[in-house]
Design brief:
The protein is α/β, with parallel strands linked by helices. 38% of the residues lie in helices and 23% in strands. The chain folds into four domains: 142 residues, OB fold (Dihydrolipoamide Acetyltransferase, E2P); 267 residues, Alpha-Beta Complex (inorganic pyrophosphatase (n-terminal core)); 102 residues, Roll (Diaminopimelate Epimerase, Chain A, domain 1); 73 residues, no CATH class. The strands form six sheets. A six-stranded antiparallel β-sheet has the order 21-22-23-24-25-26. The protein starts with a strand and ends with a helix.
């Protein structure tokens, strides 16, 4: 069967995102079998298969994580029992405990969680968080010495400490007990702390392996409260902070995180914590929601917390998350709101400057396969966000930096990567040119003497040539399955809801639809694009939003789109809309579908060739349709596409039926 595609010479050139699409292979037979076992639609079963969930047992564990038995944390973390004993003894002896946190959302929620728990348990406890601008990341000698002067008996690090050899050695020399709770990658040699709790010490198969810093703090606090018989009334408070910090830190939503977050997201709309209530109010999250979605935290609550760590004093967030005074909570939430607006403006300004530099100057990042951009007077606290946006726009690893205010000879920067490029390994490759550096596969931070900048750029380019091909230098859109608009229903959205919480390592399903017609398009808000879309032969158009795509207006009239589904509630009416993540031009139009009528085994059939999908469809007298795409051995048979079952079309009677239909179409 020939496709019948022809070019459309009337389509004007349009500026569109320069993306690469990776569409998962269709697994029709396996998806149908999994759908039969789980009650999900074959479309959602295909999504599970794409996530590596292929058996009914795996699907049950994924859809209902609370149904699975898990080992107790005390049996998994080697130093958990001794950590609890040391804290019990300190509380009993009224010794002073000090927490050293971090200035990101994970570190601040971890600090607030342990402050709440230890105060609940009667401990004398205080905290310190290093300054992003003056100290940089992690516990340092200055903080240790201040704790020693205050008579601290135990230092408890959260979300940091695993690489802080000098600071930990200093504490040990001063006779202070040190418990490290962290989740970052393990160095070759561990610090000489009295106890270390880090999920990276556990086997890859452990359900606790994906914990963020706040998750480790949660386990320590809950285990300690259980040992002291004082857990009742505390768990919900701690679980809310665990939920907030885990999602805001972009931790993997797998393993124990998924199990606990399913509970925690249901608690937040009616939070027991005065500060979270105030934050939800300021962020404009609907109080009518039965539970929050990860995106409510990722795009509304989390940025307001992170903005403080980037631009202001982390004490604001600690007070917000530990106070029981509604007035103080509202005041601190308002500060978060104001500083987040400042952060948004800074990001917008720096991003515009960066794009202008990239596009108006000869920065040959495609040749170098890495983008290194350094400018004075950019704010250290937000350049990491701008790096992420540049990766999203250009699809290339980005290293962005600015000069230190007091020392113009020193550059401090942030890095963000793409799937084929390991940021931390790239920094290790350049370590002879750097001062401090750290990070993981997707992101990192670094400092270097300004005189080394050109050499640093060349060295990164050398590393990039070992792992990147030119085709990698486009933003990657990973797509689960092709979907027709008539399959997008509230029922489908409800089934997708069972896959939540979605996020890092458990992404929202992404679908695609070819040859969609754009009926309306307009810019809304700060450069977002609102659309009305239609698919051929579908009576009802569907609404869509494309975040930060205002610069691409006008889009061509016909496009292929990739999207997530989102629910919109307006005046009590619930509808499903599209959130576009990918777009490419439909550079072809289709000839009208051919139709024919024929008889086979004395029965009358109708058939058509759908050019847009390159698909043959055969309908029998009872209304059942057999749909076969060109080159496929498996077709779909059923009254409705979403309920159709896969069949092998090389077997009788389908093979002879297809030959008869093809012959009839050739004669039309």
């Amino acid at each position: 069967m020939q496709s019948g595609y022809i070019s459309d010479p009337s389509t004007p050139p349009h500026k569109l995102p320069n993306q690469r699409w990776q569409i998962a292979p269709a697994r029709g037979k396996e998806a149908y079998q999994l759908a039969q076992a789980t009650g999900l639609s074959p479309l959602l079963s295909q999504v599970l298969i794409n996530r590596g969930i292929e058996t009914p047992e795996q699907a049950q564990a994924y859809l209902d994580p609370a149904s699975q038995a898990i080992p107790a944390p005390i049996d998994e973390f080697p130093d958990l029992a001794i950590s609890v004993e040391m804290l019990k003894e300190a509380i009993a002896n009224e010794e002073k405990i000090a927490i050293c946190g971090d200035y990101d959302a994970d570190g601040m929620t971890s600090t607030a969680l342990l402050l709440r728990a230890l105060r609940w348990l009667g401990a004398e406890v205080d905290y310190a968080i290093p300054s992003r601008m003056k100290d940089g990341y992690g516990i340092n000698r200055r903080i240790v010495e201040e704790f020693a002067d205050e008579g601290v008996a135990i230092i408890l690090t959260v979300d940091n400490g695993i690489s802080a050899h000098e600071a930990i050695s200093s504490a040990v020399e001063l006779g202070i007990t040190v418990i490290i709770t962290d989740h970052h990658d393990l160095p070759d040699e561990l610090p000489e702390a009295d106890a270390i709790l880090n999920p990276k010490q556990l086997p890859e198969s452990s359900p606790y392996r994906s914990l963020a810093g706040v998750g480790v703090a949660y386990i320590l606090a809950v285990t300690l409260a259980q040992e002291l018989g004082q857990l009742r009334g505390l768990t919900t408070q701690l679980l809310e902070l665990f939920t907030l910090g885990t999602i805001a830190d972009l931790a993997p939503l797998t393993g124990i995180n998924r199990r606990w977050l399913k509970r925690g997201l249901g608690l937040l709309p009616q939070s027991q914590l005065t500060g979270i209530q105030a934050l939800i109010q300021m962020a404009g999250v609907s109080e009518e929601q039965k539970e929050l979605k990860p995106e409510d935290i990722g795009f509304k609550l989390g940025p307001r917390i992170n903005a403080i760590g980037r631009l202001a004093d982390p004490q604001i967030v600690i007070e917000l998350l530990t106070t029981t005074d509604a007035g103080i909570a509202l005041e601190r939430a308002m500060q978060c709101e104001q500083i987040n607006k400042k952060r948004q403006q800074l990001c917008e300004d720096i991003e515009k400057e960066a794009i202008a530099l990239i596009e108006e100057n000869p920065l040959d990042w495609q040749q170098q396969r890495v983008l290194v951009i350094v400018q004075p007077d950019w704010h250290h606290g937000v350049i990491g966000i701008v790096a992420s946006r540049l990766v999203e726009r250009y699809g290339v690893p980005v290293f962005i930096g600015t000069y230190e205010e007091e020392d113009k000879e020193l550059i401090r920067g942030s890095a963000r990567g793409i799937p084929e490029f390991h940021i931390f390994e790239a920094l290790q490759f350049c370590q002879d040119l750097l001062g401090k550096f750290g990070g993981h596969k997707a992101a990192g931070g670094f400092s270097l003497p300004a005189k080394n900048l050109d050499e640093f750029r060349d060295s990164l380019s050398q590393f990039a040539y070992d792992c990147l091909e030119p085709e990698h230098l486009k933003p990657l859109i990973m797509i689960d399955a092709e979907t027709n608009f008539n399959q997008i229903t509230p029922q489908l959205y409800q089934q997708i809801d069972a896959l939540h919480p979605c996020g890092i390592e458990n992404p929202d399903p992404v679908f695609w639809t070819p040859n969609v017609q754009i009926l309306e398009q307009k810019i809304v808000g700060k450069g977002h694009l609102k659309l009305m879309l239609s698919q051929d032969n579908q009576s009802n158009p569907i609404k869509a939003i494309a975040w930060r795509w205002g610069e691409y207006v006008p889009l061509p009239s016909r496009v292929d789109i990739a999207y997530k589904l989102r629910q919109n509630t307006w005046n009590g009416t619930i509808s499903v809309e599209l959130e576009l993540v990918g777009i490419r031009p439909s550079t072809v139009t289709t000839l009208p579908s051919k139709k024919a009528e024929f008889y086979y085994n004395q029965r009358r059939y109708t058939c058509s060739l759908c050019e847009s999908l390159n698909e043959l469809r055969i309908r029998n007298p009872e209304g059942k349709v057999l749909a076969i795409q060109k080159g496929q051995r498996t077709g779909l048979l059923g009254l409705k596409r979403e309920d159709a079952k896969p069949v092998d079309v090389t077997q009788p009677p389908y093979y002879q039926l297809i030959k008869a239909a093809t012959r009839a179409l050739e004669l039309t």
